[in-house]
Amino acid sequence: MIKTTLKTMMFLAVAVSGFAFAANTCEFCDLKYQQCLRATHNPGGPTSAQCDLQYRLCRETDCPSP
Q: Positive or negative, the Cα torsion across 2, 20, 29, 62?
């Protein structure tokens, strides 16, 4: 129980620090997508298709077109 809690806390700390260093919204979308894909291994977590959809929506709304 304690190991699981510590692992969760460390994961959240790394995720938050990663989001804080994202230079622009495109990088934020990429980081969010990677985090989502890692969460697909958890029971009750999102599917890879859900992660793909969220990523596409993030890129469409938050990322400027080249």
A: positive
Answer whether 0.85 is exceeded by the pTM: no
Q: Which two tokens stand for residue 16?
A: 């938050």
The 10s digit of each residue's pLDDT in 14-42 is 655 555 544 567 888 999 999 999 999 88
Using one digit for the tens of pLDDT, what is the confidence trace for 49-66? 999 999 999 998 877 665
Burial class (CB in 10 A: 0-12, 13-18, 19+), 49: exposed
Q: What is the CA radius of gyration of the chain?
A: 13
Cα-Cα end-to-end distance for the chain: 47
